[in-house]
């Protein structure tokens, strides 16, 4: 099939590359000229394991193309995926849909033959209706169909998630569209992916409901971890005991810092805004957003307590600053609130992240990046394991740190309390 991905960020690029690997002709379009020029040279703008190899292979085969020319992209494809960003609006919690609507207005200029236009971007329920009305102002309704195909891939596991999704959700009631999309996804369906066909609005809402539910699971276990800390219970026993109940499931039951990333924070906020628009009270989601906000503050007060309220001049090392492992994505990572706060309180902060330097901390006083773990940890009073990279799971801290009295605060519970005790290292973790 001939596809076009509009917006080649984490979602558009990964899905474009993977669709081409399934044998489709894919044109990846972005308005960012530098990004497109780099992609043509095989330079991948994001950290996503396995993506570079797959991209080069399919680019070489000629099935994958990169362009900034929308007319070329639309004219030469039958299926158009909208994969642009839907961040939170400025001065509001609603989703900013301007990128999506701009694409709709641009694309309609070049529709001459039947096109299926699909939102892969996460968009609030009824956005598809609005896109349809934008396009139908200039184009005959028979020449296009609007569907929703929300994306569930996780950064860091994106290629695996594309190839082996738990489910594929298609929101469309148009027979022709459904037939074509089922065929497009048939290589994944034949490998066992569940194919769910629903209304366009249904698909839009499935995405938000899924993200809000996962955010709820994380916030829930984080709050239970707080109770564990007070009652000397190990949160990992709770996660294990709960997770083995098939009705609950073990995933997203690991206590840690506040959830972050490019999806959960903005999507939970946007869902609350959508519910207001339709005069519905999503009180659970509201509590989750509140609980997550509290979480960052709570962990900061924990750090303060660990340092006996003496943060000034303390040397603090952050291991990992991204919101999760195997990605370079910093969007809404809890480190973005923790590091500036600690710097303001007079701490001297070094951070090491396997994906390197982060612009976000460039202008923050007393914060520097180290390109190797040893240099980052060397003189630390406190080492904070912020992100669960494998790189941090077997570190020998006694060999890394000169300061004999250093403390480790493991916000991901990736180290063994027993081992740390044996090594005579002062160690704190979450809910243990
Ligand atoms: N990142 C994730 O893990 C993830 C997972 C599932 C769903 N989503 C959703 O997918 C959507 C995209 O997310 P992302 O993380 O890939 O975003 P992103 O910010 O990484 O990428 C968006 C891209 O769109 C481009 N763009 C914006 N306007 C454009 C236009 N008019 N024409 C061409 N290109 C344009 C930008 O230059 C950018 O490269 C969002 O709605 C997000 O909520 C993201």
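-> sequence recovered:
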């Amino acid at each position: 099939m001939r596809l076009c991905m509009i917006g080649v960020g984490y979602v558009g690029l990964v899905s474009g590359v993977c669709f081409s690997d399934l044998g489709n002709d894919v044109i990846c379009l972005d308005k960012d000229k530098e990004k497109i020029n780099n992609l043509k040279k095989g330079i991948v703008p994001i950290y996503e394991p396995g993506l570079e190899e797959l991209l080069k292979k399919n680019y070489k085969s000629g099935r994958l193309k990169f362009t900034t020319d929308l007319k070329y992209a639309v004219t030469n494809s039958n299926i158009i995926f909208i994969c642009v960003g839907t961040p939170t609006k400025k001065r509001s919690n609603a989703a900013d849909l301007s990128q999506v609507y701009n694409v709709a207005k641009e694309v309609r200029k070049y529709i001459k033959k039947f096109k299926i236009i699909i939102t892969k971007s996460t968009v609030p329920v009824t956005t598809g209706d609005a896109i349809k009305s934008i396009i139908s102002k200039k184009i005959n309704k028979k020449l296009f169909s609007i569907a929703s195909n929300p994306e569930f891939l996780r950064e860091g596991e994106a290629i695996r998630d594309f190839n082996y999704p738990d489910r594929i959700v298609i929101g469309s009631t148009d027979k022709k569209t459904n037939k074509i999309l089922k065929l497009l996804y048939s290589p994944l369906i034949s490998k066992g992916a569940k194919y769910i066909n629903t209304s366009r609005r249904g698909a839009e809402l499935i995405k938000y409901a899924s993200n809000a539910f996962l955010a709820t699971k994380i916030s829930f276990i984080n709050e239970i971890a707080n109770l564990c800390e007070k009652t000397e219970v190990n949160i990992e026993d709770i996660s294990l005991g709960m997770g083995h109940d098939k009705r609950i499931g073990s995933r997203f039951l690991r206590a840690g810092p506040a959830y972050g990333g490019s999806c959960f924070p903005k999507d939970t906020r946007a869902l609350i805004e959508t519910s207001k628009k339709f005069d519905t009270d999503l009180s659970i989601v509201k509590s989750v957003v509140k609980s997550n906000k509290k979480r960052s503050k709570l962990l900061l007060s924990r750090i303060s307590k660990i340092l006996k309220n003496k943060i000034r001049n303390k040397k603090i090392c952050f291991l990992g600053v991204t919101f999760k492992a195997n990605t370079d994505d910093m969007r809404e990572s809890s480190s973005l609130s923790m590091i500036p706060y600690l710097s303001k309180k007079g701490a001297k902060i070094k951070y090491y992240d396997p994906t390197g330097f982060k612009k976000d901390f460039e202008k923050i006083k007393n914060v520097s990046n180290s390109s190797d773990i040893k240099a980052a940890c060397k003189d630390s009073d406190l080492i904070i394991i912020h992100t669960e990279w494998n790189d941090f799971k077997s570190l020998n801290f006694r060999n890394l740190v000169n300061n004999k009295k250093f403390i480790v605060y493991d916000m991901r519970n990736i180290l063994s309390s027993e081992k740390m005790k044996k090594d005579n290292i002062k160690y704190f973790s979450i809910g243990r």
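Residues 6-12, 29-32, 35, 83-86, 99, 102-103, 121-122, 151, 153, 155, 262-263 surround nicotinamide-adenine-dinucleotide (CB under 6 Å).
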